């Protein structure tokens, strides 16, 4: 996909500029609106100005460690008002993917308490014995420093056994290889997917987070706006690929985990690139 206006500088928007015309915006969170618990400068202002201008905004995240309840508290700290309907998280989307496929399924989980809360909220039965598992759901076992959490110390082995011996289905929350933290990148869920896939010579049966259609379709349905009238704003290749596949305008921000050079080395060309989300609003004249 080529740039919509390849010859127009990012700081000189025309009256019919596609970002002005977009009625809906889907924002990634970590690396776009915040780094860890610290808001990216003026990100809350950017969201407030979009809403004040009549734009609909949804937040989408591949973060597999937090529930919607966790994120509401996080957004309060960031200074961005949200409701559960504004949040489309990989934890929530994964839980309901499994629950719709097999209500009440027995699940062996790798990951954090936020994923556990969403799985339980979807009526799934979490099991500690991997030989009983019908599904293995893999999220991130890493804490904010990149260390494996103590409660996940043996869970990669447990997941291996559930997949190898019990023949469980393999579902992952997201494919992200790395994750932006306050002091630098840390391993993402993709590190666990890669390890299990290598050991088993088997790919996941489903990966729910971006760039998968599953999570993007939920976000678009919440907006109620055709994808051609929406923009996705992110800092990772998964964000840009999700936007390309759905037919949305793709906005890359340089404030997160991936450099623009790395993005382009992967053959991905965003429609627009900015230093941060506040810079998107040049169309307002400031």
Low-pLDDT runs of 5+ residues are 1-14
Q: Compute the number of helices.
A: 10
- Terminus-to-terminus distance: 28 Å
Mean pLDDT: 92
Name some characteristics of this structure.
2 domains, five-stranded parallel beta sheet, Rossmann fold, globular, single chain, alpha/beta, six-stranded parallel beta sheet, 286 residues
Explain what the structure shows:
The protein is of the alpha/beta class and 286 residues long. The chain folds into 2 domains: 116 residues, HAD superfamily/HAD-like (Rossmann fold), CATH 3.40.50.1000; 116 residues, Rossmann fold (3-Layer(aba) Sandwich). The chain is 33% helix and 19% strand. The chain has 10 helices and 15 strands. The strands form 4 sheets. The protein has a 6-stranded parallel beta sheet, sandwiched between helices. A 5-stranded parallel beta sheet has the order 7-6-8-9-12, sandwiched between helices. The protein has a two-stranded antiparallel sheet with strand order 2-3. Helix 4 packs parallel to helix 5 and helix 6 crosses helix 7. The chain is globular, with a radius of gyration of 19 Å. It starts with 17 loop residues before the first helix and ends in a 12-residue tail after the last strand.
Write the layout of secondary structure elements.
Elements: H1 18-21, E1 24-27, E2 34-35, E3 38-39, H2 43-52, E4 56-61, H3 68-78, E5 87-89, H4 90-101, E6 106-110, H5 113-121, E7 125-126, E8 135-138, H6 155-164, E9 169-172, E10 178-181, E11 184-187, H7 189-200, E12 206-207, H8 213-223, E13 230-234, H9 237-246, E14 249-253, H10 260-265, E15 272-274
Parallel strand pairs: 1-4, 1-13, 4-5, 6-7, 6-8, 8-9, 9-12, 13-14, 14-15
Antiparallel strand pairs: 2-3, 10-11
Helix pairs in contact: 4-5, 6-7
